[in-house]
Specification:
The structure is a single chain. The protein is of the alpha+beta class. It has helices at 19-30, 57-74, 103-121, 140-144, 147-154, 196-206, 268-281, 297-310, 319-330, 340-343, 345-348, 350-353, 362-370, 378-401, 410-445, 452-493, 499-524, 530-562; strands at residues 6-9, 12-13, 35-43, 48-55, 90-99, 125-129, 176-180, 185-191, 211-212, 233-234, 241-248, 253-260, 286-292. It has three domains: 6-180, Formiminotransferase, N-terminal subdomain (Formiminotransferase-cyclodeaminase, Chain B, domain 1); 185-316, Formiminotransferase, C-terminal subdomain (Alpha-Beta Plaits), CATH 3.30.70; 355-562, Four Helix Bundle (Hemerythrin (Met), subunit A) (Up-down Bundle), CATH 1.20.120. Helices cover 52% and strands 14% of the residues. The strands form three sheets. Strands 1, 2, 3, 4, 5, 6 and 7 form a seven-stranded mixed beta sheet that branches.
Length: 563
């Protein structure tokens, strides 16, 4: 099951002192459905405001366009002063892939936004990072060199014609840089020292750029140069990491302050561990760390798995546990409470996209099922039962991974447990997906049908929604049927004390498949395409037959094992 595409956008506006202007720009973002404004961070000294929004790609670039339009109408760059480098009312507007979308696809959305800004607003636009049209424009600092004051001349040079928009300078709005880049994690690691010098030493060990290589004394020794006279640098431990050391008077400690520009090259936990290693070598101790701003869910899950592996434990744990382990392992709550609901991007977006059924208690879910409404119904119940089956298989795998004397089998069982966790999450998603599919079908039936055109539109919408109402329980069948491989392995090779649990899991998986089959069949009666109906029916019947056969085979193993 594919994740929904989510991107983040972090536009920087050249205004940090007039609250009414900042609020007007923020409001232009809030008015776009499907986008959530996550953060507004104004700076008076820099006279600059950074806003963070996230949502579906198409909606995000619509919100970004409206914000750029509002900024251009309210900010006059001829009077702007501030400490931060800038070249326009909207200085830079990066798009960042969060989930369900590639960097290449994100760059395409950046170009769509840039073209519209150039065409409709008459603002020169330059593309940078992954959306750059030429290598020399990848770096933001290179594009912005000369700033607003120098662009009236710079834009006339052939090599600095904009990628989109006019080749004449917009004197009030300036120019804008739009692009696509990796998520930047702002991350500080706390040290048990007040010494900024020692913190810098750790930072130089860790950051990619490292330190200048010197002869003898690493601080005062003669600088080493190559045969061309260029300064030789000793590379740091972490690729894609920029770092400095500083002293924070508020906390009375020094920190290593890092920007992790590519978590695929250096993860959060790798940066933390590198600081621990460097600090220990220098007689220091890392006491904790803090995240500045937001972080993608995957970054925290990867950290949790890393530290569970280091403990010799199964990393096939629920997301909640993985996040808890990550927080405690890196001391993310040392300086202030760490609330995942406020620090993890996907969780911040959940108030608009949260699955209502899967957030209910068991009692609440059964009450919803028992209510006098057709949804949720059998499809959602089948998905939930399937999730129970996957959970039981995962439980047996995790228990087997930790069984004394079975240490050499741990990787094997953890691999099965990871598959079970993924299936559990997919089936929980299906609980709400089945209800959404039913509601979409009901909405299609409510469409007007007075005119021939309306009838045609309504008929097409009903056919599409009916197909969705079939695909949803069919997917429940597919995912549930896949669980028999896990449950079969656990009954044959797992902890024999838990064989009955694997058997109950098989019973649940079969119930999910049979429940899905019933929903496929009842919804198929409304499908006009006979070819599609036959294909759905064939697959559903094959899955049902396979599930019944697998459950019986597993039950025989369970009974034999129990004696």
């Amino acid at each position: 099951m594919n994740q929904p595409a989510i991107i983040e956008c972090v536009p920087n506006f050249s205004e940090g002192r007039r609250p009414e202007v900042i609020e007007a720009i923020a409001q232009s973002i809030r008015q776009v459905d499907g986008v959530k404004l996550l953060d507004v961070d104004p700076g008076k000294a820099t006279n600059r405001t950074v806003m963070t929004m996230a949502g579906a790609p198409g909606r995000v670039i619509e919100a970004a366009f409206q914000a750029i339009k509002t900024a251009a109408s309210l900010i006059d760059m001829r009077t702007h002063k501030g400490e931060h480098p800038r070249m326009g009312a909207t200085d830079v507007c990066p798009l960042i892939p969060i989930s369900g979308i590639t960097m290449e696809e994100t760059a395409q959305f950046a170009h769509r936004l840039a073209r519209r800004v150039g065409d409709e607003l008459g603002i020169p636009v330059y593309m940078y990072e992954a959306a750059a049209t030429r290598p020399e424009r990848k770096n933001l600092a290179t594009i912005r060199a000369g700033e607003y004051e120098g662009f009236n001349t710079k834009i006339r040079e052939a090599e600095w014609h904009p990628d989109y928009g006019p080749t004449t300078f917009n004197v009030t709005a300036g120019a804008t840089v739009i692009g696509a880049r990796d998520f930047l994690v702002a991350y500080n690691v706390n040290l048990n020292t007040r010494s900024e010098r020692k913190a810098n030493a750790v930072a130089f060990d860790v950051r990619e750029n490292g330190r200048i290589l010197r002869k003898g004394n690493p601080v005062t020794g003669e600088i080493v140069r190559d045969e061309k006279g260029e300064v030789v640098r000793e590379k740091g431990m972490c690729k894609g990491v920029k770092a400095i050391g500083w002293y924070i008077q508020e906390y009375g400690i020094a920190q290593v302050s890092m920007n992790i520009t590519d978590t695929n090259q250096t993860s959060l936990h790798q940066a933390f561990d590198a600081c621990v290693q460097s600090a220990a070598a220098r007689g220091l101790r890392v006491t904790g760390s803090e995240l500045v701003g937001l972080v993608p869910l995957q970054v925290m899950l990867d950290a949790g798995r890393h530290y569970l592996k280091k403990q010799g434990l199964s990393h096939a744990a629920p997301d909640r546990e993985l996040i808890h382990i990550a927080i405690k392992s890196m001391g993310l709550d040392e300086l202030a409470p760490f609330d995942p609901q406020k620090k993890i991007i996907e969780y911040l977006l959940e108030e608009n996209t949260m699955n209502p059924l899967t957030t209910l208690t068991l009692t609440g879910f059964t009450e919803e099922l028992a209510a006098d409404s057709p949804a949720p119904g059998g499809g959602s119940a089948a998905a939930y039962v399937g999730a129970l089956g996957a959970s039981l298989g995962t439980m047996v795998a995790n228990l087997s991974a930790h069984k004394r004397g079975w240490e050499d089998k741990m990787d094997y069982f953890v691999e099965w447990a990871v598959k079970g966790q993924e299936a559990r999450k997919k089936l929980l998603h299906c609980v709400d997906e089945d209800t959404r599919a039913f509601n979409k079908l009901m909405d299609a039936f409510r469409l007007p049908k007075e005119t021939d055109e309306q009838k045609k539109t309504r008929s097409a919408a009903i056919e599409e929604a009916t197909t969705g109402a079939i695909e949803s329980p069919l997917n429940i069948m597919r995912v549930s049927c896949d669980q028999f491989a896990l449950l079969d392995a656990m009954t044959k090779e797992g902890n024999p004390n838990s064989v009955s649990d694997a058997g109950v899991g098989a019973a649940c998986a079969l119930a999910a498949v049979e429940g899905g089959w019933l929903n496929v069949m009842i919804n198929m009666s409304g499908l006009k395409s006979k070819k599609a109906a036959e294909a759905f029916k064939k697959e559903a019947n094959e899955l049902l037959a396979k599930a019944r056969e697998e459950k019986e085979r597993i039950f025989k193993t369970v009974i034999l094992t129990m004696g």
